[in-house]
């Protein structure tokens, strides 16, 4: 197993490098770089894309903009050159890429172009919101989906199985943001009840509360956004659990266990559960990572939660390259490491699995 883990760790380097190369290359062709954003703000135009639609001129994607475009604005060339030097756009793209990667290797992710704060500090500031949504959504989905999937498998074809399948399909079909709006309208003072707060992760007087008060306030605030984030997760996990159990229940060792007179609960949870839950439990790291990274920017906006989703969206709009590439590097690295952890979870749940033997 040690050799397999070492190979996977070594594969992280070329994989991560490939991710960064592709994304860095794509940004060279995207119009409206950070220089253009600053110029648009200084000219009072609000956003560089308003200038594009206004037909002033075509912008190049190198971050500095087209000379005719800049000249039409009447800005001194010396000022533009100074901006390019400050942001590093006076260097060729290849040199900028390798300089960026060298800094990342040393865990230097630079500073945001527009926020005057380090990328690492900025991500750490937004991380609690995304961890809250990702962790609680995943835990709740597993707590509900696994027992529900087991019962559906045991009662396959029954009325309970039929109507729960219908409810799951409907829940899966509802977009998360639409469900979030429904929750706000019904339970957050929209038109009916004022049971939950409308925005934020904590109350304004959070620091003045007791320990129990802080815990209660925290759960009070996250209830609606976590429900909105979790709604679509039930379907996949529940049906995966059900199908895994159905496959195991039909196998010969289950028939033998029942023939020996073992109680049904002993058969299900003593024999079937371990084999059926292998793929479900071992996939927990990747499921959490998917919810963590995929927490909807719309849901964060609706509930006024300042998380990584909004951070990434705003960074993309502003062409804040240090934030974009710094977070991409960190999250790409985390994703690759979590992939290895998922394999280790398979071995932990079922020691009979040997990845090295499968590769030989």
From TrEMBL:
InterPro entries recorded: MetI-like (IPR000515), MetI-like_sf (IPR035906)
Subcellular locations according to the entry: Cell membrane
Gene3D superfamilies membership: MetI-like
Bilayer-crossing regions: 9-26, 129-148, 169-193, 218-241, 276-303, 323-349
Domain ABC transmembrane type-1 residues, every copy: 127-346
Topological category with respect to the lipid bilayer: Multi-pass membrane protein
PROSITE patterns reported for this sequence: ABC_TM1 (PS50928)
Domain of life the protein comes from: Bacteria
A UniProt-annotated Pfam family: BPD_transp_1
Keywords carried by this UniProt record: Cell membrane, Membrane, Transmembrane, Transmembrane helix, Transport
CDD domains xrefs: TM_PBP2
UniProt record similarity statement: Belongs to the binding-protein-dependent transport system permease family.
PANTHER family: INNER MEMBRANE ABC TRANSPORTER, INNER MEMBRANE ABC TRANSPORTER PERMEASE PROTEIN YEJB
Protein name in UniProt: Microcin C ABC transporter permease YejB
Organism annotation: Aliiroseovarius salicola
């Amino acid at each position: 197993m040690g050799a397999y883990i070492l190979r996977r760790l070594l594969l992280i380097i070329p994989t991560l490098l490939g991710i960064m190369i592709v994304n860095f290359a794509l940004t060279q062709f995207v119009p409206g770089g950070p220089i253009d954003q600053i110029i648009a703000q200084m000219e009072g135009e609000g956003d560089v894309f308003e200038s594009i639609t206004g037909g002033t001129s075509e912008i190049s994607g190198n971050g500095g903009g087209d000379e005719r475009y800049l000249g039409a604005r009447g800005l001194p060339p010396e000022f533009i050159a100074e901006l390019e030097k400050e942001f590093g756009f006076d260097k060729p793209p290849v040199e900028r890429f390798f300089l960026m990667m060298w800094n990342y290797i040393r865990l230097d992710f630079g500073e945001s172009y527009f926020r005057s704060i380090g990328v690492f500090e900025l991500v750490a500031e937004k991380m609690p919101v995304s961890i809250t949504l990702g962790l609680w959504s995943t835990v709740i989905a597993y707590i509900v989906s696994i027992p529900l999937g087991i019962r559906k498998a045991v009662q396959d074809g029954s009325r309970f199985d039929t109507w729960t399948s219908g409810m799951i399909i409907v829940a899966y079909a509802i977009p998360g943001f639409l469900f979030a709006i429904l929750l706000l309208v019904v339970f957050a003072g929209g038109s009916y009840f004022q049971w939950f707060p409308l925005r934020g992760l904590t109350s304004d007087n959070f620091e003045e509360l007791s320990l129990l008060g802080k815990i209660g306030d925290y759960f009070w605030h996250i209830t609606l956004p976590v429900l909105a984030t979790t709604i679509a997760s039930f379907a996949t996990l529940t049906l995966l659990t059900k199908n895994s159990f159905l496959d195991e229940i039909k196998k010969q060792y289950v028939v033998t266990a029942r023939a020996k007179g073992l109680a049904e609960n002993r058969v299900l949870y003593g024999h079937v559960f371990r084999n059926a839950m292998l793929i479900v439990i071992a996939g927990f790291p990747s499921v959490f990572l998917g919810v963590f990274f995929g927490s909807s920017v719309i849901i964060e906006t609706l509930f006024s939660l300042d998380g990584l989703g909004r951070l990434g969206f705003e960074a993309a709009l502003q062409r804040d390259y240090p934030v974009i590439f710094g977070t991409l590097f960190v999250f790409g690295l985390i994703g690759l490491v979590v992939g290895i952890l998922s394999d280790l979870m398979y071995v932990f749940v079922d020691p009979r699995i040997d990845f090295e033997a499968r590769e030989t």
